[in-house]
Amino acid sequence: MRAIIKYKHRFKTKLSWEKLAMAMWQLGEDEPVAVNHTGDDQELNDQFTIALGLRYWGYDKKWHDLPIKRIGEMITVQPFKKKKRILISTPYRDELMITSRAFYVLVSEIATALDGEISQEASCDDKIGTEWITPDSFDEKYKRVVDLSRQDVKQVSFLESIALPTIDEKRTKGV
């Protein structure tokens, strides 16, 4: 999954990786944040470079028994080759719902904070960066997935893990 955010202005607010992770994976205030992350600082403000991945098995032991090998992969945020654009991506084109939901939340949070527009790839043949939508339109498009309960997202993801292949080529081409 890939999305590009183009923006005119820098952040109006600070975005900490912990708060982003809590929103992405529906973590409660009292839960420990067992998230892999990389980046230069605690906030996504200066470098626009961060990677977040939830250790699913830390929240539910059932993840240990799933046949899929690609759980807990990182969702990355990095500067895009054109000025004032950010690329947000996952390693695979098709992701489990738990990762897809996290991706949609992250894209929306960053685009909203930057007052930017979003372009995303919808299929193998789509050229990213040709059509742009507002964060509100993006939110409306994925509202059904983002509004699901944490339990529903996990249940669908468990079922998807059976249907998705255990070996899946990571995206090797750049944008």
How is this fold's topology laid out?
Layout: E1 2-6, H1 17-24, E2 35-39, E3 50-54, E4 75-79, E5 85-89, H2 97-114, E6 117-120, H3 135-146, H4 150-163
Antiparallel strand pairs: 1-5, 1-6, 2-3, 3-4, 4-5
Helix pairs in contact: 1-2, 2-3
Q: What characteristic shape results from the CA principal axes?
A: globular
Over the alpha carbons, how many angstroms does the gyration radius reach?
16 Å
The SSE string, one letter per element, is EHEEEEHEHH
Summed up, the domain count is 1
Helix and strand composition category: alpha+beta
Mean pLDDT: 80
Biggest sheet character: 6 strands, antiparallel
Strand order of the largest sheet: 2-3-4-5-1-6
Q: Estimate percent helicity.
A: 25-40%
The overall strand count is: 6
Report the sheet-strand fraction. 15-25%
Beginning-to-end CA distance, first to last residue: 11 Å
Low-confidence sequence ranges:
none
Question: Treating each run of at least 4 consecutive H or I residues as one helix, how many helices?
Answer: 4
Write up what this structure looks like:
There is one protein chain. 30% of the residues are buried. A hairpin with a 5-residue loop joins strand 4 (75-79) and strand 5 (85-89). Helix 1 packs across helix 2 and helix 2 packs antiparallel against helix 3. This protein is an alpha+beta fold and 175 residues long. The protein has a six-stranded antiparallel sheet with strand order 2-3-4-5-1-6, with helices on one face. It has one domain (2-163). It has helices spanning 17-24, 97-114, 135-146, 150-163, and strands spanning 2-6, 35-39, 50-54, 75-79, 85-89, 117-120.
